[in-house]
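1st attempt posting a full record on here, be nice pls
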Amino acid sequence: MNETPGNPSVASLPANLPVKILGPFQKFFKKTVSGSLPLIAAAVVALVWANTASHSYHQIWHTELAVSIGSFHMAKSLVHWIDEALMALFFFSVGLEIKREVIAGELASLKQAALPVAAAVGGMAIPASIYALFNWNTPWAHGWGIPMATDIAFSLAILALLGKRAPVGVKIFLTALAIADDLGAVLVIGLFYTQSVAWQYLLIAVVFLALLALANYVYVQWSLVYALLGICLWFFVLCSGIHATIAGVLVAAFIPASGKYDTRTFIDKVNFYLNQFDCSKACGFTMLENHDHLNTVQDIEFACHQVETPLQRLEHKISGWVSYVILPLFALANAGVVINNIDLGQAATHPVTLGIVLGLVTGKPLGIVLFTFLAVKLLKTSLHHGTTWSHVIGASFLGGVGFTMSLFISGLSFEAPAIMEISKFSIILASILSGTIGILFLFFSHRDKPAEAI
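the predicted structure (as tokens):
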């Protein structure tokens, strides 16, 4: 198509051409769902690779990479660099999501937060209790945090398959539940999966945390400042013995959530700039034909930049890297279960298998539904518009899709390769079962007219 002023295809476009504008939650939902596709593909590749070329799979991911500067030397396997360095960026994005929800989302007020937070608490407490019951006084008791997690990308992707059969309310409920669940998982990792603490490094980390707080207080907008302070915080948290991914959430907590302009100032400025457009003389096909208009557009662009918060800007920039690079790499490095190495008969009755599978498949829905019911009855909250108890039950099964966070906690819980294989196999099996039960329950419980779709 030739882009010329006389192009009839351009000139004939109707002035009232409808434009579909997506709201913030709709954009977040679609972005999360689309981001799950590379994760699914990477998990499948990992399983195929590990079972067809097991030696090369483990050799590559356990290749040692070292960083040496003078007398400083740090060496870790490739999979550990992914789990401790790249996944810190994933936790940073999780922290940004949590902060956004707390400030202006489903967790913004006590009444709004009561339902998903109560559901998340139940969805963590009951599965952890089930796992602990099967693994009490065993060498594997430390894995109680594995069935507590919900994979937001996978669970929302499965829910999206229902299209109009899933009302907006259940999508909001599951999203808020998963975000509150992520916050719980972060706290569990920080508090219970730290072996020992090197206090001298932790004190240095606190200094950089204070510098982040100062940058936030004086409203530093430069992302580079937070990046440099964040890297330093990550390094000293890593050296302290606390899992380094926690640094990602801490950095996110201090990213400014307000723009330089408030909304009123932004609207006034943009209205002023829009009034500068004068087409009585020249409004050509390209903005370059009128320098005044070009300057005005640049002024509007600058105003948009000033009203945009550093939080939303960073969340937008990092989301692609997390969805299309970091999480697929994590899945590729961690989801490779060698099925031939597992005695399926023995694994079926192993306490770790029973704890993870029953925790995710039965404990998650039981805890979510029970605590949601208690929140509605005791706290006088209400289900989201268009959401029924059938939707809550179906969504609660989808909450049992643990995958990413469950695999992550599994890596912190066990060192023995045989137990790691059983744990990974159990997580994948439980996630498949939970996702299948959830989508089938929601599909067959749909009786009313199609709900509003996102």
